[in-house]
Amino acid sequence: xxxxxxxxxxxxxxxxxxxxxxxxxxxxxxxxxxxxxxxxxxxxxxxxxxxxxxxxxxxxxxxxxxxxxxxxxxxxxxxxxxxxxxxxxxxxxxxxxxxxxxxxxxxxxxxxxxxxxxxxxxxxxxxxxxxxxxxxxxxxxxxxxxxxxxxxxxxxxxxxxxxxxxxxxxxxxxxxxxxxxxxxxxxxxxxxxxxxxxxxxxxxxxxxxxx
Length: 211
What we know:
The chain is mostly beta strands. The chain has strands spanning 25-39, 48-62, 65-79, 84-86, 89-113, 119-129, 133-139, 154-167, 170-179, 198-210. The protein has one domain (25-80, 99-136, 150-210): Porin. An eight-stranded antiparallel barrel has the order 1-2-3-5-6-8-9-10.
């Protein structure tokens, strides 16, 4: 006599967080935009926009947990939202103000994945400035010399990030980042509310993870 039964393949709990195969390392690319402000300047609001682009790698450490490493080119800074008088001189109008702050950045994050492959993470980043440029246009002209107040070349920051799985290796990412160390410790009093200034930004990106 022959006895027949139906059997089902079992999906391992250790299956990779991106596919149904066990995969320890996965890599991919990211591209998106930063919405930035600098805490401590004379303006508030995420009016400065910048590029966020680079590569990302995941190393699975335990089931639904993975550590991610990134190498990014990221643009931070600040931008005015309208002309205003200098806090130190009510007769001088600050017509235009802008900080362009491009960095090379290395974030490291710990990520938790759900069963749909979406994940969230927290971590820290080290950033190295390329060439930070600050401009303050006034009326009457040339009333503020910002070159006497240099920015720091290195920065450390904290990160919180959420990635929603869209399709196959495609993810939609929203991230908040705040400077743990100041981008400078002495600021021009004509355009600043505080001596120490910190980068503060939101990032919206798309990610594609592949081998």
